[in-house]
Amino acid sequence: MLEHTATRAPVEDELDVLRRWAAGPQPRALRAAIVLEAALGRHNAEIARRLGVSRQTVATWRQRYAAEGATGLDSRSQSGRPSVVDEGEVVAESLLAPPDQRSSRSLGRRLGCSHTAVAAARRHWNLGRDELSTPAPPLTPPLGEGGIWVVGLLHEPGHTLVLLAQRTGTRAEPAPADIQPPADALAAVTTAFTRALAAPAAPPAGPGTGQTAGHAAVGAFLAAARRVHPRAALHLVVLRGPAATDFTEQCARAKVTPHQPPEHTGTVSFLRAALALDAAQHPSSSARVLLDLAAALQGPAPLRWIREPLPAAPGERPSGAAGPLHAAGTASGAGANQIDLGSFNECVVIETVRLAGAITRGDIATRTRLTQQSVSRIARSLLERGLLVEDRKRPSADGKPRGLVRLRDDAAHAMGIHIDPEVLTAVVVDLSGRIVARRVERITPEPRPGAVVAQIAALGEAVLAGADRQVRESSFLGLGVAVPGPVDTVSGTVLDPPLMGVLRDVPLRTLLERRFSCPILIEKDSIAAAVGERWIGRDRRSRDFVYLYLGTGVGAGLILNGDIYRGLTANAGEFGQLCAVVLGRVEPSGRPEVLPECNPACHVLVPDPAAQRPQLTVRQAARAIGRGTLAVIDMLDVGLVVVGGPFCTGPAAEVYLTEIERAVNDFPTARRLRRVHVERSVSTHEAAAVGAASTLFHASFTPRLRRP
C-alpha cells in the first residue's frame, strides 16, 4: 500500500518553491526533497533509501502534499510544549537570566518549552558552556570569526535592516559568564521597536517611489555607516522586506556583506538577541547605546540610526601615532598600569610612603600592620624597580640610624589635558604632581567637532614634545583627559555639556586613540580635579572631602572612604543642578535651571552702575554656591571642603571661601557636632589638567581590592 501513495505532480511555480525549500534549513528541506523525488516517478522505497528515511515518513509527506499542496509541508501546531521555539528569545533570556538560572531546564520552564528545544537553540547560536566559543547569530551566509557589535538600524516602509560589525582581522574574547546585559535598557529598546513595527507605514520620503526609493535609502544608509566605521567588517541582516540578495549592489558599493536572519527567529527577538550579545561581549557602553537607540526608535519615522565609532581594538596601532612616547606596544583602549604592581600590599606601601613623604620601613609596618619581613621585601622590590628611593638616615633612640624611603618623583609621568569651553590646558606631571611641561591655548572658534579634536591632539603632541627629555618611555603611564560633564567614561564619549555643544556625542577617546598610542582615560573635570587634589595634597588630603571646582561652571568632586566617588555613571557632582534645586530655580518645564550663579566667568567683584544689564557680583554668586554646599555637607556629613579651579584666584577667592565657610558652619543641622573646614586647593589654574594626569597615578597606585 505504501508503494502506491496518492500524489499529484507539482506545477512549475511550486517546483521553484520546493527546490528553494530543499536547499534551505531542516526539517522543511527533507519534506520538499521527498516531493521532488516523487515528482521524478520514484517509488517510496527508493526515495527512502536515497534520503535515508523510513518508508512511512515518505508516505506521510507525499499524502500531506497531495491533500494540501506546499503549505502541507509546514510543521503543524501540537498539544503540549512546542518543539520549535523562537531562538532569539532563548538567546536573550539566556543572557538576561542570573548565572545560576541559565540552565536549559530553567529556561525551558520560563519560556514554556522543552529543555531540548532550548539546548538546540543555544547550540545553533554557539551559546554553550564552551568557554572558547564566541556566540554569534546563525545567519545565511554565516558570519566570520569574532564577536559582534550592533552598529545600525534602518526601519522604513517595506523593510527593516540591522547592521552588525566585526573587528577586521581580530577575534573577540568570549563574554564572561557573569556579565548580564542591562535589562531595563534592553526592555526599553524592545518596547520601542515593537511599537515602531506596529505603527502604520508612512509613504517613502524623497524622490522616487517604491523599490527605487527604498534601494536608494539603503545605499545612503550603508554609505553613512561605512564612513563612521571604516575599519570594521559590516554585515547587513534583512529582518523584514526583500531578500538580502536584492541589496547586493548597495552592499557591494559600501563593502558590506548581506545576510538573511535565522529561520526560527522573529524580527523583534533577533534585534533583542543581537543587542544582548553585543552588551554581554562589550559591556563598556552598552547601557548608553541601548538607551540612545530606544530614544531614536521613539522619534519620527523613518528611523536611520548609526552607532558612534567603536573604540580602538586592543593592540591596534592608531593611524598618525608618532613620537618616542607613542610606542605601539603600549596601546590600549583604557587606562593600564605599565609598571605592573604585583599585589595589593605593594599599593598599600606606596600609598603610605606617598602620604608620609619620607618614612622608615618600621613606620610603614606600624601604619600598615604588615610584618617587618613583608615591608622589607616589598620595599626592596620597589627600590629595585625604581619606584622608591633611599633618602637620608634618621637618628634613633638606640643609636642606629634608620633609613628613610620616599617615592622617586620621576619614576612615573602622565599627561593631562583639560578641555574647557574657553581654553585648552595640557600638562605633563611627575609622580609628585610637579608640572614638567605646560601649554595653554584658546579653544578654536571653529564649530566642528573634528577641528576641536584636532586642536586637542596637536596640543597634547606639542606638550609631549616639550617634555620629551625629562620623560622616559618606560615611566610614561598615559593620557588623562578632563572634560565638562556629563560624560560616558567607559566608552570615552562626551555626551551633552551645557556650555560646549560642539562636543555633543563626540567619541573623544576613540578619536584620540588614532593620534596617541598609549592608555587614555576620560574623566569629568570636577572629578579629575578632586583626584589631583587628593594625590598632590598627600597627608593634608588623606581624609574625606568635597572639592568645589570653579571653572566655566561649578562642579563638585567627592573623595569618600579614601577613594573618588564617581556614582553609577561616573557623573556624580552636578553641583549646578543641586544649587538650582536648593534655591527653587526651575524652568517652566520643571527642569532645574542652568544658573548664572554657577558660572564664575560671568561674576564681577564690583558692579558697574553704567552696565546695560544687571551684573551678578562674586559675593551674590558665592552665597548661592554656599547654599548648594550646605546641602552637600548635610547629605554626606564630611568635615572638609576644598575650593579650587581657575576662577578661585585673587580677591575673588577670599570672597568664595568666606561665604562658603559661613554657610556650611552656621546653617547645617549638625552644626553643634562639627566644624567644617573650608580650604583653598593646592592647585589653581591647572587643577583639572593636573587632576586628569593624576587619574593615571590614582588608577595605577591607589590600593583597591578590585583593580579598575
Automatic annotation (TrEMBL):
CDD domains xrefs: ASKHA_ATPase_ROK (cd23763)
Region (Disordered): 310-332
Protein's organism: Streptacidiphilus cavernicola
SUPFAM superfamilies (UniProt xref): Actin-like ATPase domain, Homeodomain-like, Winged helix' DNA-binding domain
Name the record gives this protein: ROK family protein
HTH marR-type domain boundaries: 354-393
InterPro entries: ATPase_NBD (IPR043129), Homeodomain-like_sf (IPR009057), HTH_MarR-typ (IPR000835), ROK (IPR000600), WH-like_DNA-bd_sf (IPR036388), WH_DNA-bd_sf (IPR036390)
Protein family per UniProt: Belongs to the ROK (NagC/XylR) family.
Signal peptide, first to last residue: none
